[in-house]
Write a structure and sequence with these properties.
This protein is mainly alpha-helical and 381 residues long. The protein has a two-stranded antiparallel sheet. Strands 3-4 form a two-stranded antiparallel ribbon. A hairpin with a 5-residue loop joins β3 and β4. The two termini are 35 Å apart. It contains 14 helices and 6 strands.
Length: 381
Amino acid sequence: MKILNLKFSLIAALLLMGASVSAQTLPWSERMAATAMKIWADSMLVEPGKPVKWAYDQGVVLEGIANLWKRTANGDYFKYIQKSMDFFIEKDGTIKRYKQADYNIDHIKNGRSLLLLYRTTLSEKYYKAAATLRQQLKDHPRTAEGGYWHKKIYPEQMWLDGLYMGEPFYTEFAVNFNDQQAFDDIANQFIYMENHSRDGKTGLMYHGWDASKKEQWANKTTGLSPNFWGRAMGWYGMALVDVLENFPADHPKRNALIGILNRFAKAVTSVQSASGTWYQVLDMPAAKGNYKEASASCMFVYALAKGARMGYLPATYNLVAQKGFNGIIKEFIETEASGQVNLKGTVAVAGLGGKPYRDGSYNYYIGEKVATNDPKGVGAF
């Protein structure tokens, strides 16, 4: 098994920063990281009064922290990632509070943190934990076509969210351990999802697709859910750029992924608001109750900026991303007297089916709770 070594460029100016530098002079990303590391100092208690779960929310935050560590070489960021994962990972590599038999694609997300920890420390417990998640993907139920179900409790369903939860880890694991046969499967997940969920008129993508067409929320002809939810497309866009970063340059399906990303970018740019941010329900800005939503806006900025920086998208998308970032700072960021920055305006959750039943209607999406410093928005920021 071969592990690829990451090379991190150390930024000397940041290494020399002392405590005398005020928080206000730091980049917004580091100021937001300070907020995350303060409010989730020991473990991620998303729902007060309930046990801490092995949950993707934490993985989204740790993804942002990892990117900062790579850019700044500040060891405090790495220690935070390790401490966060060590809460769950036993000495033998067992993952506490994780059940493979649930076949929940959300539970794969944190695997990227485990791979980072293994590459850096070579501790076998992180490899064993990551291998457990890879085994889930080997056994995970699929549609007849080959697409991963979102969860065992949601049979025959693919959601846009699931591409982010599973595919970046799947790709990174395949690269690190030379699993060349995986890349066709990884690319196909995106191809299946676009083929089924993309609207031919707008280019936007519906949140979910039910291959069985049995769900109440599913169109009986297409199997699609009825609306374009912002964060669902945000998950999909982030998944594309993160997968492409590690996807083999000479693989025959790489260009298909780049084509999907370019169609995605064109569609989300077409529904960007005048202020730069994006709405909860993307194509209905004037509808009663619709609002500009922080996490989707952050995810779109991430996907467009990274896509342009890495050369997957034309450089003109840098302007779209910058407009979006400026809007995020203006509309969603608040700074307390202490200097702590907070991200307002993230919808706490949205899904399809379940109990109580979520029907995917417009009223459902605009009716979910909106939170400050929700980890899904903070991590994407």
